[in-house]
Amino acid sequence: MSVVIIGGHDRMVSQYKKICKEHKCRAKVFTHMEANMWNQIGSPDLMILFTNTVSHKMVRCALSKAEKNKAEVIRCHTSSGSALNEILANM
Predict the structure, then answer these.
(1) Is the pLDDT of residue 70 over 90?
(2) 3-state DSSP helix/strand/coil percent for the chain, to nearest 5?
């Protein structure tokens, strides 16, 4: 399963990827708005939005891409590793 994480903290990127790998998921993490983020997202199975640490512009871009690809979107207010672990465990 491929996962895209939008938001979160820069220092947590390696932990996010490690947690996804433990759940047998491939992950892309975007903590900041990048120039061509729309093209880099790809077509994930699951998109996780950490709403506390993400800009409105990134949310709009991510949601439009998720709608186009019919990806499931999960919003989470906290951007902790345990929150990500719980989300992936429930999937």
Answers:
(1) yes
(2) 50, 20, 30
